[in-house]
Amino acid sequence: MSRLQKALILSLGSVLAFAQASSSSGSGQSGSGGSQASGQSSGQAGASSSSGAQSSGGSSATKSSGNASLSGADRKFIEHAAMGGKMEVTLGRMATERASNPDVKAFGQMMVDDHTKANSELESLAQQKGVTLPAEKPDSNQNKLSKLSGDQFDRAYISMMQADHQKDVSEFEKASRSASDPDVKAFAAKTLPVLQQHKDKVNSIKAGMAGGSRMSSNGGSGTGSTATSGNNTNNANNANRDATSSAGGGSASQK
Predict the structure, then answer these.
(1) Whole-number percent of the chain with pLDDT over 90
(2) Which DSSP category does 135 fall into?
(3) 10 Å Cβ neighbour count for 188?
(4) pLDDT of residue 32
(5) DSSP at 146
(6) Of 217, 198, 216, 117, nearest to 158 (Cα)?
(7) Distance (Å, whole) CA 218 – CA 221
(8) Is residue 75 one of the residues assigned to a domain?
(9) Residue 107 included in any domain
(10) Which tops the pLDDT comparison, 130 or 249?
(11) Distance between CA atoms of residues 184 and 86, nearest Å
């Protein structure tokens, strides 16, 4: 073999070795890049998952914080309004069954309709704010009315409703102005005109019932006075006739 052939073989070997080395290096870099990309993707996915968990936790924390931040006054208002509303419905049903005055019956039905609607809205608000409403319990007013009927029921029920709505309007006016929670304040402001209407109506019924009593009393007194006056007149006429008769008899005797 000549020197030229040996040189060519050596040169070809060097070229092949270089090519193999270059190929191996490129494959290693590709693998490393793929691992890095995979690691970055995995890291981003983990960060996204962690962010989602934090967001969900933040939402729950916000809701819990909203419930916990309800002031004692707002919570007390919700509880008292719920109890009062349920009692208005119960007593209203009694009025539709026991009252004798048509206006009192109609007022009782108004209580059932309006307070049933308000109670439903209040229950939703209480659930939203995490407030557990107390169960309805019979009170002294209910026990008293259960023993009455007719005119006695009418007067007792209307007196109770007059006192209750005086207090209710005052409490709802206060909550509509100064409640800390905006939802509680909105409910009070929305319900207040309805309660004011109830207050005006019950005052009107009470005045009408009082007027009827006065007319009845005056009518009875007038009848008695008229009868007495008539009796007095008859007695006077009889006395005059007796006097005239006596005078006539005396003249005849003298003659």
Answers:
(1) 51
(2) P
(3) 23
(4) 47
(5) T
(6) 198
(7) 5
(8) yes
(9) yes
(10) 130
(11) 18
Distance CA(169)–CA(193), nearest Å, equals: 9
- DSSP 8-state secondary structure symbol assigned to residue 131: P
Q: Are 150 and 100 in contact (CB under 8 A)?
A: yes
Q: What angle do CA 190, 195, 201 make, to 5 degrees?
A: 140
Whether 66 is covered by a domain: the verdict is: no
Q: CA 249 to CA 241: how far, in whole Å?
A: 12
Q: Which residues contact 139 (CB under 8 A, 6 or more apart)?
A: 87
Burial annotation 69-91 (CB, 10 A radius, 16+ → b, else e) = ebeeebbebbbebbbbbbbbbbb
Phi (first) and psi of residue 94, to 5 degrees:
-60, -40
Query: 147: domain CATH number?
Result: 1.20.1260.10
> How many domains does one find in the chain?
1
Which residue from 101, 99, 122, 85 is spatially nearest to 198, judged by alpha carbons? 85
Q: How far apart are CA 160 and CA 81, in angstroms?
A: 17
